[in-house]
């Protein structure tokens, strides 16, 4: 036991001088397979002195089968993360899952991953929730490049927005416009006192509107409604001979930022000038649900529809309606 303690403290191969060769041989046999590994037992020609060289035994490589509810450890450029293996293995096609299952990986030691540590935790959120929630200012382009390196699917959701995962310069080019647009929206919101309360009030109003629509769905209608309710949308008037919400929306940049935030919540939105001079924001529910996740892309410019008002001049059963425009279309600058 004393020899074992000395060898362990030494931390490298070392020798012990024995007076009896039989003792040396016995120690060598005892250490084999134990906490120390016997390297050699040599009888010295001068007086029967034996040298026993021993070294600390190498730890047995642990594989996934050796774990019993224990977390695995990832080292993301110096930051340590502990995760249950079942979470990582739920996405078997990803790089982390392949590293964990690799028979050559010793999971008793941290698994190094060449990803920025501050961003790596967002990818663990993706494993947990199917999307990432990085704080404002986190470069989306860097997240998408890391996502490609980690072999995530072709599209990932970041803060409610679906982004294509493309490696290399293509991803950078495609996300430059997204970064500019998100920075534009973030800067507008930063200069907008009370924005969160304003947005929440209208989210509550939108929810109440569609709840009312569903609550009256059991009422019979003799004919289709030829009015605003015939479209599955809520129209928010923001301008009519003056701004409707002068403390919040008093220019088109704020209107566009508000629309962008509604899109991030999963709504389909557009700014409509259909009834000049009135300006509306049309808010409708998504027509397609994608696996319970939002798939709105801020990389697309906000669409602004300009529609001339029309007047039905004549309509009779069996006859076609004649429609005449009453106002000209209005040209608008493209959204940023």
Notes on the structure:
With 336 residues, the chain is of the alpha+beta class. Helix content is 33%, strand content 21%. It is built from nine helices and 14 strands. The chain has helices at 2-10, 21-31, 85-89, 95-101, 117-129, 140-149, 169-190, 195-215, 252-264, and strands spanning 14-18, 36-43, 50-56, 72-76, 79-83, 111-113, 155-158, 161-164, 233-239, 268-272, 279-284, 304-305, 310-314, 322-325. The strands form five sheets. It has a four-stranded mixed sheet with strand order 9-11-10-12. Helix 6 packs antiparallel against helix 7 and helix 7 crosses helix 9 (252-264). The relative contact order is 0.07.
Low-confidence stretches: 288-336
What profile does the largest beta sheet have?
4 strands, mixed
Rg calc: 34 Å
Morphology call: elongated
Q: In angstroms, what separates the terminal alpha carbons?
A: 76 Å
Task: Lay out the secondary structure.
Blueprint: H1 2-10, E1 14-18, H2 21-31, E2 36-43, E3 50-56, E4 72-76, E5 79-83, H3 85-89, H4 95-101, E6 111-113, H5 117-129, H6 140-149, E7 155-158, E8 161-164, H7 169-190, H8 195-215, E9 233-239, H9 252-264, E10 268-272, E11 279-284, E12 304-305, E13 310-314, E14 322-325
Parallel strand pairs: 4-6, 10-12
Antiparallel strand pairs: 1-3, 2-3, 4-5, 7-8, 9-11, 10-11, 13-14
Helix pairs in contact: 6-7, 7-9
């Amino acid at each position: 036991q004393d020899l074992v303690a000395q060898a362990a403290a030494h931390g490298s191969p070392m020798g012990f001088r024995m007076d009896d060769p039989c003792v040396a041989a016995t120690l060598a046999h005892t250490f084999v397979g134990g906490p120390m590994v016997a390297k050699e037992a040599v009888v010295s020609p001068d007086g029967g002195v034996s040298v026993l060289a021993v070294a600390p035994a190498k730890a047995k490589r642990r594989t996934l089968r050796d774990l019993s509810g224990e977390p695995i450890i990832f080292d993301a450029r110096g930051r340590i993360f502990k995760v249950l293996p079942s979470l990582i293995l739920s996405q078997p096609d990803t790089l982390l899952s392949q590293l964990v299952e690799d028979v050559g990986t010793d999971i008793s030691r941290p698994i190094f991953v060449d990803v920025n540590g501050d961003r790596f935790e967002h990818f663990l959120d993706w494993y947990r929730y199917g999307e990432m929630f990085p704080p404002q200012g986190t470069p989306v382009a860097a997240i998408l490049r890391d996502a490609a390196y980690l072999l995530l699917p072709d599209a990932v959701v970041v803060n409610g927005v679906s982004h294509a995962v493309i490696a290399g310069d293509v991803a950078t080019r495609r996300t430059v416009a997204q970064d500019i647009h998100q920075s534009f929206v973030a800067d507008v919101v930063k200069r907008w006192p009370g924005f969160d309360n304003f947005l929440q009030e209208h989210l509550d109003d939108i929810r109440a509107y569609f709840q009312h629509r569903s609550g009256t769905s059991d009422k019979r209608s003799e004919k289709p409604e030829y009015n605003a309710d015939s479209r599955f949308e809520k129209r928010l008037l923001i301008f009519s001979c003056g701004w409707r919400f002068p403390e919040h929306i008093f220019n088109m940049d704020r209107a566009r930022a508000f629309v962008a935030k509604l899109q991030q919540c999963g709504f389909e939105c557009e700014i409509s000038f259909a009834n000049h001079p009135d300006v509306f924001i049309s808010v409708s529910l998504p027509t397609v649900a994608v696996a319970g996740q939002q798939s709105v892309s801020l990389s697309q410019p906000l669409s602004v529809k300009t529609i001339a008002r029309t007047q039905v001049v004549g309509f009779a059963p069996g006859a076609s309606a004649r429609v005449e425009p009453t106002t000209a279309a209005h040209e608008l600058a493209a959204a940023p």
